[in-house]
Specification:
Elements (H helix, E strand, L loop, with lengths): L1 E2 L14 E3 L1 E6 L6 E5 L2 E6 L2 E6 L2 E6 L6 E8 L6 E7 L4 E4 L5 E3 L1 H4 L4 E7 L2 E6 L2 E7 L2 E6 L5 E5 L2 E6 L2 E6 L4 E6 L5 E5 L6 E5 L4 E5 L2 E5 L7 E5 L2 E5 L3 E5 L2 E5 L6 E4 L5 E4 L4 E6 L5 H19 L12 H6 L1 H10 L12 H12 L2
Parallel strand pairs: 1-19, 2-27
Antiparallel strand pairs: 3-30, 4-5, 5-6, 6-7, 8-9, 9-10, 10-11, 12-13, 13-14, 14-15, 16-17, 17-18, 18-19, 20-21, 21-22, 22-23, 24-25, 25-26, 26-27, 28-29, 29-30
Length: 361
């Protein structure tokens, strides 16, 4: 199924661009090739090392066993318990890296040979391999598809996209269909809100497109695009300055540093050059609904395990933590209902309230 139509202009619509403030966190890295998060642990990859930091403090450094680090992602754990951070080395091998810096080889466990690219969102994992693409939608089953080599791979929940020059092929496993978009001079693809309700994002040097209702809608931008990075439901883009696009609202970050962009699931961005790396976080606005809806339920039901230092080892005591873990919480609390664990009561009324808060856009 080939989609050629492009809808009318959306976003911004001539409205003034607001300027926003950010919090800057300097990172002990430079020449970053990948960045990803696992709960409150940040993994920053340079070619010769991965630095693991918690609360801004480096806790471990991991060297690649062979070759160099090239990319990394956070994916649903193969043992069904939480998430794993998996990095690809230039040798084509995949390594799980724990928060304490331990390495576990997993490429042989998947049984697909050398991997040239990896992406993941929710329970969907896609691997570019020598003769096509391998897709895992649960840890026990690997589906192989023979397909021409792609220039770029992007992964969303139950969806993957393959870019070959100007052609982007989207595989929708939930709807059992494939759609092809043609975008002249396409340079980058990604999925925004990849873990929950993924929509394709396509960038050229001059235009940004976001998928809406089965078509690509051009988004008004201030000028030529240098690069983009998707961070959860936010799109960071470099033009004459650095901008953040949230649900059609474009904001400019004043005095933003130059460099490559790497989006994080909680909406933050890592910017890296040859000389430095920095994490930028939009200064959060107050959210009274978290205090009135989520916090009381957290205190009654979740605090025993999810306070700082709690037995679950995942701090959910703040608004930021709930925003960062939104996709995981939707999965565990709303869909699979594996949280809270057996023996801890969460009423249907409270679960519905959490579902409404977590799923709002």
């Amino acid at each position: 199924m080939r989609a050629l139509a492009i809808t009318a202009l959306v976003a911004c619509g001539g409205a003034p661009i607001r300027e926003v403030s950010v919090t800057r966190t300097e990172l002990m890295a430079r020449g970053v090739v990948a960045a990803t998060e696992q709960s409150d642990v940040l993994y920053v990859f340079e070619r010769d090392r991965a630095t693991i930091a918690r609360a801004g403090t480096a806790v471990a450094t991991v060297r690649p066993p062979a070759g160099e680090w090239t990319s990394a992602t956070t994916l649903a754990a193969f043992d069904g318990d939480g998430t794993w951070v998996v990095a690809r080395a230039s040798t084509g091998a995949l390594w799980r890296i724990t928060a304490s810096g331990e390495l576990e080889p997993i490429h042989d466990r998947i049984g697909v040979g050398s991997v040239t690219a990896i992406g993941a969102a929710a329970a969907t994992v896609a691997l570019a391999i020598a003769d096509g693409v391998a897709v895992l939608r649960d840890p026990a089953h690997v589906a192989r598809f023979a397909t021409p080599r792609a220039d770029e791979l992007a992964v969303g929940r139950d969806r993957i996209a393959l870019r070959r020059g100007d052609e982007i092929e989207v595989w929708d496993f939930g709807a059992s269909k494939r759609v092809t978009y043609e975008v002249p001079r396409a340079t980058q693809i990604a999925f925004v809100d990849a873990a929950h309700a993924p929509r394709l994002v396509v960038a050229t040097d001059e235009q940004l497109y976001v998928e809406r209702d089965g078509k690509l809608a051009p988004v008004a931008t201030p000028g030529r695009l240098g690069s983009i990075a998707v961070a959860g439901t936010r799109i960071w883009l470099r033009s004459d300055s650095l901008y953040a696009l949230d649900d059609g609202v474009l904001s400019r970050v004043a005095a933003a540093p130059a460099g490559h962009l790497f989006g994080l699931a909680d909406g933050d961005v890592v910017i890296s050059s040859r000389d430095h790396a920095v994490r930028l976080s939009l200064t959060p606005a107050a959210d009274p609904s978290w205090d009135t809806t989520v916090r009381p339920i957290f205190q009654r039901v979740c605090a025993r395990c999810h306070l700082p230092g709690g037995e679950a080892d995942v701090d959910l005591s703040t608004l930021h933590a709930w925003q960062a873990e939104r996709a995981e919480l939707v999965d565990r609390v709303v869909e699979t209902r594996t949280m809270p664990p057996a023996g801890v009561e969460l009423s249907e009324k409270d679960r519905a309230a959490l579902a409404a808060w977590l799923r709002r856009r």
